[in-house]
Structures are given as structure tokens and as C-alpha cells.
């Protein structure tokens, strides 16, 4: 039996919003009591219409958000309420790749500095090995060492997406959450980035949670699919089964709309 990389129980995130100091509080149940587990080396797709809670789940898993209730276990360790300090050893293990936008990479840093940063923060290798490690990362994501002196504005969207991927694997992450990692790219480039993610998964034995609007992408990338609707997971199962024989009416509609 493969080890369980990630186990989520009863996980909820409620946002409380007020339009102004006098208006009534409004509770948005962005994620509502979800449960799932992902085995080591597995790839779980997360689909659902816009606003169904997918990014909120991603942010909860990497602890960019505090859950309202529930637990998150990473390789058996309950990380739900770990402080920033106690989370440090586990932060390397789970990383997130968002879709590339200019806000994702500091425009004032060179590619070299952007790749050195996670290596230095997490002390992945010793100081004198950092240059070699940067070169190794560039090679792994299919970029040449000549890009090191450049700034993100001098690279294409696809190349910058490769930098985001390199930063995620720099920490020797075992679990990677990919939130729409190719949606901002040209269709011709999307395939290249997906192939890169597939190759890295094999080479590094990665576990993925893969969020995408594109069912063809999910079909290609994922062993299982979880379908979100209004914050809940309404259906979860093997990719082929969910796509060919969806049980829930919403999934049927979603597949019809997206395929
Ligand atoms: N920080 C926040 N404060 C208040 N409400 C939020 C916040 N973040 C998300 N929400 C709300 O939570 C719900 C889920 O949002 P989320 O971004 O997780 O959806 P999503 O499935 O990722 O959508 P998309 O496919 O458009 O990316 C939405 O109703 C959204 O407006
Ligand atoms: Mg989203």
C-alpha cells in the first residue's frame, strides 16, 4: 500500500464579510467539510465551476489560510494548527504553483536571485553548492544557464512558469499543489508545461493536486478527480469513471459544459 501523502478531514473555511461597519455580517462557506486523501505518487484533480472553492482548498493545504475547522495531515503529521515556526520543517515538503502572472515573481530580482531565494531560505544545500544547484534546477525545468542574468520581464510567460516550477521543486517538495498552472499560457505552450510537470512527477516521485478548468488536462494528468460544488466535494473517484459515468447531476452538467 502506498503511503498517504495528504489526508484532509472535515476541512472548512468560512469567510465573514461586511460591506461596511453598519451592514450585517455575511458568511461565505468557501469550503465546507471536505474529506479526501492522496497517496504518494498519485495525482488528484480538483474541478468545479468558478467560485466553488478550489483555490481556497489549495491555500488551506499550504497554510496560506487558517481553516475554520477540520484537520490536514501531511505524511501522517497533523499540520493544521502548526505555528509558522513549527511548520518550517514541513513547509519544504508541500509547495504550490499558481498560474503565472507578473505579480508572481519579483520584477526587480534576476532569475538567478529568484532561484537562490528558496535554496537559501530553506537551506536546501550548503552555501558553496548553491550555484550548481541553481544550474541543476534550470536544467530540470528545461531552461539554459544564459537566462540567469535576466529579469522576469525579459522571459516569456512559459519560461516564467518554468521558473515558478523550479522554485517549487527547489525545496525538494514531495507534494505540489498546481492551481491552474497553464491557464494563462498559449495553447501551444500549455502542452510543453504539462509534459514538464509529468516528467518531473516521474523523476522526483511527486504527488500532485491538480486544479484545472480544462477537463482534457485533468484527464491527461490525474488518476482521480474530486468535483467541487459550492464548497463541498460532491463526487470523487477514478478519472475514467467520473468522466464516463458521473453520478452527480452537477458533475454531468459540468462535464457536458467543459468537454
Ligand atoms: N479572502 C476571501 N474573502 C472572502 N471571500 C473569499 C475569499 N477568498 C475566496 N472567497 C470566496 O470563496 C469562494 C470560493 O473562492 P475560490 O477562489 O476558492 O474559488 P475557485 O473555485 O478557485 O474559483 P476559480 O475557478 O474562479 O478560480 C468564492 O465565493 C469567493 O468569492
Ligand atoms: Mg481558483
Description:
- By secondary structure, the protein is α/β, with parallel strands linked by helices.
- Helix content is 36%, strand content 27%.
- It has a 6-stranded mixed beta sheet with strand order 6-7-8-3-9-10, sandwiched between helices. Strands 2-1-4-5 form a 4-stranded antiparallel beta sheet, covered by helices on one side.
- β4 (69-74) and β5 (77-78) form a beta hairpin.
- It is globular, with a radius of gyration of 19 Å.
- The protein binds adenosine-5'-triphosphate and magnesium ion.
- Adenosine-5'-triphosphate binds at residues 15, 17, 28, 30, 48, 50-56.
| SS element count, helices | 9
What is the percentage of strand-forming residues?
25-35%
Which ligands does the model contain, each kind named once? adenosine-5'-triphosphate, magnesium ion
Spatial ordering of strands, largest sheet: 6-7-8-3-9-10
From the N-terminal CA to the C-terminal CA, the straight-line distance is: 33 Å
Low-confidence segments: none
Mean pLDDT: 94
Radius of gyration in whole Å, from Cα? 19 Å
Order of helices and strands: EEEHEEHEHHHEHEHEEHH
Kindly state the percentage of residues in helix. 25-40%
Helix and strand layout, with pairings?
Elements: E1 4-17, E2 26-39, E3 43-47, H1 54-61, E4 69-74, E5 77-78, H2 84-91, E6 94-98, H3 111-121, H4 130-140, H5 157-170, E7 175-179, H6 187-204, E8 207-211, H7 215-221, E9 224-229, E10 232-238, H8 239-244, H9 249-258
Parallel strand pairs: 3-8, 3-9, 6-7, 7-8
Antiparallel strand pairs: 1-2, 1-4, 4-5, 9-10
Amino acid at each position: 500500500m502506498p503511503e498517504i501523502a495528504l489526508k484532509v478531514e472535515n476541512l472548512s473555511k468560512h469567510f465573514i464579510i461586511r460591506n461596511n461597519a453598519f451592514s450585517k455580517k455575511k458568511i461565505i462557506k468557501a469550503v465546507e467539510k471536505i474529506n479526501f486523501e492522496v497517496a504518494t505518487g498519485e495525482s488528484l484533480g480538483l474541478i468545479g465551476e468558478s467560485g466553488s472553492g478550489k483555490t481556497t482548498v489549495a491555500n488551506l493545504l499550504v497554510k496560506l489560510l487558517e481553516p475554520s475547522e477540520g484537520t490536514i495531515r501531511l505524511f501522517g503529521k497533523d499540520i493544521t494548527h502548526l505555528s509558522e515556526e513549527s511548520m518550517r520543517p514541513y513547509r519544504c515538503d508541500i509547495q504550490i504553483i499558481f498560474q503565472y502572472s507578473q505579480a508572481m515573481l519579483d520584477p526587480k530580482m534576476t532569475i538567478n536571485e529568484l532561484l537562490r531565494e528558496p535554496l537559501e531560505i530553506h537551506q536546501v544545500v550548503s552555501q558553496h553548492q548553491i550555484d550548481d544547484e541553481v544550474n541543476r534546477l534550470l536544467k530540470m525545468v528545461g531552461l539554459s544557464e544564459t537566462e540567469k542574468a535576466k529579469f522576469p520581464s525579459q522571459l516569456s510567460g512559459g519560461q516564467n512558469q518554468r521558473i515558478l516550477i523550479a522554485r517549487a521543486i527547489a525545496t525538494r517538495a514531495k507534494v505540489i499543489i498546481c492551481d491552474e498552472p497553464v491557464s494563462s499560457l498559449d495553447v501551444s505552450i500549455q502542452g510543453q508545461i504539462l509534459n514538464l510537470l509529468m516528467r518531473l512527477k516521474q523523476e522526483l516521485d511527486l504527488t500532485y493536486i491538480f486544479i484545472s478548468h480544462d477537463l482534457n488536462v485533468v484527464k491527461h494528468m490525474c488518476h482521480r478527480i474530486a468535483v467541487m460544488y459550492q464548497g463541498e466535494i460532491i463526487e470523487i473517484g477514478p478519472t475514467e469513471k467520473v468522466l464516463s459515468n458521473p453520478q452527480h447531476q452537477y458533475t454531468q452538467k459540468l462535464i457536458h459544459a467543459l468537454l
